[in-house]
Amino acid sequence: MEDLIATLVGGNLVILLLALFIILCIFLAIRIVPQSEQHVVERFGRLKSVLGPGINFIVPFLDRVAHKVSILERQLPTASQDAITLDNVLLVVETSVFYRVLEPEKTVYRIRDVDAAIATTVAGIVRAEIGKMELDEVQSNRASLITRIKESVEGAVNDWGIEVTRAEILDVGLDQATRDAMLQQLNAERERRAAVTRAEGQKRAVELAADAELYAARQQAEARRVEADAEAYATGVVAEAIARGGLEAVQYNIALEQVKAIAQVAKGQGSQTIIVPADAVDAFGKAFQMLKGRG
C-alpha cells in the first residue's frame, strides 16, 4: 500500500514539475514591449534581434533581453560653448538639440553615453560653423546657421542609429566691449539714416516747389494766351463790323463805352468830383443821333 502511494505521489510530482517547467518556459518566452520602447535580444552574448512594440517570443534560457531602449524624442540639456567668429569676436552660444533613437542595435553597441557624445559633437560643429562667419552674418543669418549645424550633426551621428529632429541656437552672447562697439555702430547707422531722410525730404520739398512754380508759370502763360485769343477775336469782330457798318458803328461803340465809364464813376460813394470828358457833349449827341437814325 505504501509502495502504491509512493508511486502515485512520485508520478504526480513529475507531472507537476513538468507542468511548472512548461509554464515557466511560456512565461519566459513571451515578451510584451511597450509602444515607446524597443528591446535588444542577445543569445549567448551576441545580438540576436530587436523586439518591436507588442507581443514577441524568444527562446527561453537561450535568449535574453539585454537592453530596453526608449524611442521617444529626447532633448539634451542646454549647453553653452565659446566660439570665435571669422572677424575674431568671442561669442558664448547656447544650443539645444532634440533627437530620437531609430536603430537601437547601433546605439547600444557603438556608443556608451549617447547624450555626452551628441553634446560634444554639437559643440565642435557649432565652433566650426561660427568660425566661418562674421558677427553680422551670425546675427542676421541664424536660421541658415541652424540648418547647417543640424545637417552636420545628422551626418556625424548617423552611424549611431540616431536621428536629430531639431537643433536650436537659443542665445548668442557678447562681451561688454563688443556690445559697446555694436551700440556705437548702431547709433551711427541711425544718425546716417536720419541724415539721409532729412536730405531726401529737403530734396523733395525743392522739387515740389519747383513743380509748383512751373505749374503757376504754365497757368499764367495759358491765361495770357486766352486773353490774347480773346483780344484777337474782339479785334476781328471790330474789323468785321467796320467792314460792314462803316465808321459810324465804331463811333457809336466808342460813345457807348464812354457813357458806361462815366456812369460807373458816378456810382462811387463819397466822391465830390465828377470827371467829364471834353467831348462828352459831342459824344452824347452822336450817340443820340445814331440811335435816332436807327430808330
From TrEMBL:
Coiled coil: none
Mode of membrane association: Single-pass membrane protein
Localization (cell): Membrane
Keywords linked to the UniProt accession: Membrane, Transmembrane, Transmembrane helix
Any GO CC annotation of this UniProt entry: side of membrane
InterPro entries tied to this protein: Band7/mec-2_domain (IPR050710), Band_7 (IPR001107), Band_7/SPFH_dom_sf (IPR036013), Stomatin_HflK_fam (IPR001972)
Entry's transmembrane regions: 12-33
Domain Band: start-end pairs: 28-186
CDD domains documented for this protein: SPFH_paraslipin
Protein family membership: Belongs to the band 7/mec-2 family.
Protein name from the UniProt record: SPFH/Band 7/PHB domain protein
Organism: Roseicyclus persicicus
Lineage of the species this protein comes from: Bacteria, Pseudomonadati, Pseudomonadota, Alphaproteobacteria, Rhodobacterales
